[in-house]
Amino acid sequence: MEFSSLIPELIVSDVEQSLAFYRDVLGFRVEYQRPEESFVFLSIGSAQLMLLQDNDNQHSRTGDLDTPRGRGINFSIRVDGIDEITISLETAGHSLKIPIREQWHRQDNLLHGEMQLWVMDPDGYLLRFVQNLGTKQLNDHSF
Questions:
Q1: Would you tell me which of 31, 112, 126, 133 could form a disulfide with 74, CB atoms 3.0–4.6 Å apart?
Q2: How far apart are CA 84 and CA 117, in angstroms?
Q3: How far apart are CA 93 and CA 58, in angstroms?
Q4: Across the chain, how many H-helices and E-strands are there?
Q5: Domains detected in the chain
């Protein structure tokens, strides 16, 4: 396994509950675990994520961990099967923060398209799943 250059580690309140959500609902794969530390390393496609159960370790904390956790950040996760994730979330009865939608973002004279869905994990971390729709050239240069 090759490690990504940036791998977020989320401090979670219950690693088993989070693992069930990420693995069983969202489709993440368990790469390895350290049960004695309540730690799990996950991946989906080329995205990687670590979960660590809150153990009051002050080295990992930057402040209080009130719910929802991760305020001010969202994690953009590129996937190929956004429809499958949507169906799995609906089947599990997990509501979406923002329903699936098409978004286009401008980079100079190019538009990058993606399908997006936004969901919060059991601790309130905001996840944005995106599936690439390709690019479009802009003809109008007056933005």
A1: 126
A2: 12
A3: 35
A4: 2, 8
A5: 9-55+68-137 (3.10.180.10)
- DSSP character at residue 19: H
Residues 133, 137, 143: CA angle, nearest 5 degrees: 110
Q: What is the pLDDT of residues 16-37, one digit of tens each?
A: 999 999 999 999 999 999 999 9
In 5-88 the beta strands, taken as DSSP E runs, fall at 9-12, 29-34, 39-44, 47-53, 74-78
Q: Distance between CA atoms of 82 and 61, rounded to whole angstroms?
A: 32
**Cα–Cα distance between 38 and 51 in angstroms, integer?**
8
